[in-house]
Prior knowledge:
- Its EC number is 1.1.1.1.
- Residues 192-307 form the Alcohol dehydrogenase-like C-terminal domain.
- Belongs to the zinc-containing alcohol dehydrogenase family.
- This protein has helices spanning 45-52, 104-107, 156-159, 165-176, 191-202, 214-222, 246-255, 278-283, 296-309, 328-335; strands at residues 4-10, 19-26, 34-42, 67-74, 91-98, 118-119, 138-141, 145-149, 183-187, 206-210, 236-241, 256-264, 287-290, 319-323, 342-345.
- α4 packs across α5 and α4 crosses α9 (296-309).
- Mean pLDDT is 95; it is low at 353-359.
- It contains 10 helices and 15 strands.
- With 359 residues, it is an alpha/beta fold.
- The protein folds into 2 domains: 4-163 and 314-345, Quinone Oxidoreductase, Chain A, domain 1, CATH 3.90.180.10; 169-290, Rossmann fold (3-Layer(aba) Sandwich), CATH 3.40.50.720.
- The protein starts with a strand and ends in a 14-residue tail after the last strand.
- The strands form 3 sheets. Strands 3, 4, 5, 6, 7, 8, 14 and 15 form an 8-stranded mixed sheet that branches. Strands 10-9-11-12-13 form a 5-stranded parallel sheet, with helices on both faces. A two-stranded antiparallel sheet has the order 1-2.
- Helices cover 24% and strands 25% of the residues.
Amino acid sequence: MTCIPVRYARWDGPGLPFTLVDGVTAAEPGPGEVLVRIDLATVCGSDLHTASGRRVSPAPSVLGHEQVGTVIAAGGPVRCEDGTPVVPGQRVVWSVTASCGDCDRCARGFTQKCRSLFKYGHERVDQRAPLTGGFASHCVLRPGTAIVAVPDGLPDEVAAPASCATATVAAVLAEAGELTGRRVLVTGAGMLGVTAVAMAAQAGARVTAVDPDPRRRAQALRFGASEVDPAKAAEADVALELSGHPDAVRTCLQALAIGGTAVLAGSVFPGPAVALDPERLVRGLHRIAGVHNYRPTDLQRAVDFLAAHHAAHPFAELVEGDHDLGTLDAAFEAAHGAEAPRQAVRPHAAVTTVSDSGI
């Protein structure tokens, strides 16, 4: 592999603008590594929380963990999650985490909580190997990263969020159990929420989605919700909390029918505690589960679902904008209050604004 010029947007901390760093070259992938050209990345809600300081993350770093790209080179034999070889020219998405596979947590199946977990878009920049996030021209995938091939016909705008939003929802639904014929409540109808609505409805559930935003409620109906009336939220067999708002957590817990399951996945930033009535939990035979990150099989299920069903729902409309690495600040600004829950960043578009030229 000849030397490839690369660049990335460096985040230096809350309230500071992104800095475009170029004049860097990509090294040959090491054993088990894969060099990927990032074709499109999306600004996730977690990126917004990090940039604003709402959640703590090391700085400087390269943010971004929802992206789709094309394989440039692999350091030896590497396989996708379905067992097929990773080869140059292949479109892929990859997991938000890389795990060792050997620690006690990995041995128990909790690879997403590995003792030596590496998390794309959440690590401090190492100038010797800075390609660790989605807001860059390329990314180096480490050993222990789940890689899933993207089928032809699945648009980049639909595939990119699979690396976080869609795979997280797949993990949530796996924790929820059988959904056929069950009454499912989804609180929060943002990116994760409408994805959960579509996946649960496709699994045969009757879905009620609640959100204070009327535009989001209308969107949930387009993704397969039967109801968006909060009054219909009572007596849910399964309640999925995807907003992180304390009131939404309470709604999920209070709505559970006998034998009901609540899966909480939205509370990924600090917030007030929510009271739990242990008697109601015990007498109701309730189960409460938390989901954070996801397993490799969840990413595969996410891509499989999008490939099979994205045309039936307006997934492409969930991503808007056309930003480059030089206008990443504008992408983050546009994400606040935008109708679509994701802003698109194209790292190989002509750079509009250059704020730095080196490291």
